Each structure stands twice: as structure tokens, then as C-alpha cells.
Amino acid sequence: PIIYVITPTYARLEQKAELTRLLYTLQHVINLHWIVVEDSETKTQLVTRFLQKSKLSYTHLNVPTPEEYKLAATDPNWLKPRGVLQRNAGLKWLRDNFNPSTGKGVVYFADDDNTYDLLLFEEMRFTRKVSVWPVGLVGYLRYERPVVKDGKVMGWHTYWRPERTFAIDMAGFAINASLLFKRSEAKFSIHVKRGGLESEFLTSLGVTLDDLEPKADGCTKILVWHTRTEKSSLKNEEKMIRKYGQGSDPMIEV
Ligand code: UGA
Ligand code: MN
Predict the structure, then answer these.
(1) Ligand 1: does its nearest atom lie under 6 Å from the Cβ of 201?
(2) Residue among 82, 137, 164 to mutate when testing ligand 1 (max atoms within 8 A of CB)
(3) Sheet with 135-136: strands ordered across
(4) Ligand 1 near 88 CB (within 6 A)
(5) Selected catalytic residue, list 18, 123, 144, 198
(6) Catalytic annotation on 68?
(7) What is the pLDDT along the chain (254 residues), one digit of tens a residue?
(8) Contact 121/3 with Cβ under 8 angstroms?
(9) Of 19, 61, 108, 200, which has the fewest Cβ atoms less than 10 A away?
(10) Which domains does the chain have, with CATH numbers?
């Protein structure tokens, strides 16, 4: 099976660094197609050129998040879900371009800032319906994970609302691409309440707990980390202009 990795991404100071790290991971994975979806009105030069040089099989899409759904700088990050319309654009592309009767595929939603062990991709490659595994450094815990008994998922090791049907981070599951065709309306909702994004998506796919395939040694190994990059400050740029007459060259892409 081909692994289709859907990555939402948006312009910010750290974007190229994040994408570079993710690209170098994905370059080590065979039979992989990277669907990069920019949260923007148009495709940016930075991402366009980056992908052209990437030596990876990829699709470049874009769709902007409407202003009213964007987080303000002062909002707590859990107030509104991120990357929703972008992941949906990736799903639409798959429904338009992947043929489940002639191909085998697995879909994984890989945020641009997380850290991925290469073993994860081989764990997910043979997914019948939905594979699940632990995610490190998430939920203000060392890890969150599906609770597995006799090879079945019984519940969730999470602090926050473990009673959710699927109390799992985006990084913690992959789906067989054929599911998208059995449930042709299934997608992410921008209106979900806090922590409901993943759970409601899996529910819309018609998935039940019984369908979940625990990977990573019965969900005991951490193969993906929900890392978050510190915001870089530019506070010396202006000071530099004042003190030395010029700051960093805006023509140099960072
Ligand atoms: C957590 C989950 O790990 C995400 O998968 C989930 O989308 C998010 O919460 C949520 O609640 O929506 P977190 O680290 O807080 O993740 O989110 P980000 O990494 O800031 O964003 C997730 C993805 O969306 C990233 O790939 C990011 O580049 C993208 N994004 C973020 C956009 O496309 N547009 C934005 O305005 C912000
Ligand atoms: Mn993140």
C-alpha cells in the first residue's frame, strides 16, 4: 500500500524549518505520497519551491481558513481547531484521485511540527480499517495511548475527557483509504467542541472501537511525539537597524 500523508501548513517564521525536518523524515519512507495543503489564499513561493526541490512524490494544494475561524494571537490554542479545511482538501483530493478498486492506500495526518520515528510508517502501512498507537508529549502527560487488552482497544489513557469515543490525537491513527469511499461525506468539522476533532472525524467514518488495530507493540511504544516549536522572536531586528543602520536582508529566505 501507498502511504498518503496529509500535512496542513501555514506561513510563519518557523515554517521552512519545520517542513525541512518533516521532508527529511519522509524521504526515508518508500511508497509515500505527500499531500501538502497550505492555509492560504494562494500557493506561496516558499512552499512551491521547497516542494519542487524535495525529490518526493507530492501534491501541493491550498485553502484559506476564514478569518472568523482563525486563532487570535491572544487566544488559547485549544479555542479553535487548526488545519481543518486543509485536511479536508487533502481528503477531497484523494477521493478525486485515488481509485480504491485498483490501488491500496493508507492515509495519515502528519502535522508539520511533530516528530516521527520511521518505524511508525511501517506500522501503519498494513491498516485494514484504522490503526492506532500512542503519542508522546501530548495532553500534558508523558504520553497518551489507547488502553489495549487482549489485542483490543478498551479505552484511553488520557487526562482530558477519556470518555470521548476516540480520545486520540491526530498523530495517533491512520486509516485505510478505502474508508473514504464507503463514507463519501466523512470529513473534519470546524465547529467541533474542544478535543472533538479527531473523535468526530472517526465517528463520521463509521468507525467503532472494535475496528481499531493497536500497533506499536500493543500500544506500548512511542513512535511519534507531539513536539511544538518555540516561537522565534525578532526583537533584535529593529534594535539592529537603530544601532547599525540595517537589519537582516529581506531577500534571504529563512
Ligand atoms: C493539536 C493536534 O495535534 C492537531 O492535530 C490539531 O489540529 C490541533 O491540536 C487542533 O486542536 O486543531 P497543535 O500542536 O496544538 O495540535 O496544533 P498546530 O501544530 O498549531 O496545528 C496543527 C496543524 O495545522 C499544523 O500542521 C499546522 O501547520 C496547521 N495549521 C495551524 C494551519 O494550517 N493553520 C493555522 O492557522 C494553524
Ligand atoms: Mn503541533
Answers:
(1) no
(2) 82
(3) 115-116, 224-225, 135-136, 143-149, 152-157
(4) no
(5) 198
(6) no
(7) 999 999 999 999 999 999 999 999 999 999 999 999 999 999 999 999 999 999 999 999 999 999 988 888 888 888 889 999 999 999 999 999 999 999 999 999 999 999 999 999 999 999 999 999 999 999 999 999 999 999 999 999 999 999 999 999 999 999 999 999 999 999 999 999 888 999 999 999 999 999 999 999 999 999 999 999 999 999 999 999 999 999 999 999 99
(8) yes
(9) 61
(10) 2-244 (3.90.550.10)
